Amino acid sequence: MSALGSVRQGQESAFPREEYDARQTAVRAELARRGIDVMIVTGPENIFYLTGQQTPGYYTFQALLLPVEGDATFIVRRLEYFNFIANTFIPDAIVYDDGTDPVSLLVDVVGQRGWGSKRVAIDKRGWFLPIAVYEALSARLGNVLDAAGVVETFRAVKSPLEIEKLATAATYVDAGLRAGMAAVKAGATENDLVAAMMGAAIAAGSEYVGMEPLVSSGPRSGVPHGTWRRRRIQDGDPAFLEMAACHDRYHAALMRSAWVGAVPKAAVDMMAVCQDALSAAIDAIRPGETCESVHAACQEVIDKAGYTDAFKKRTGYSVGISFAPDWGEGGILSLYTGVTTLLKPGMVFHMPPALRIYGEFTVGVSETVVVTETGCRVLGSVDRALLRVA
Question: Which domains does the chain carry?
Answer without folding.
Answer: 17-155 (3.40.350.10), 160-389 (3.90.230.10)
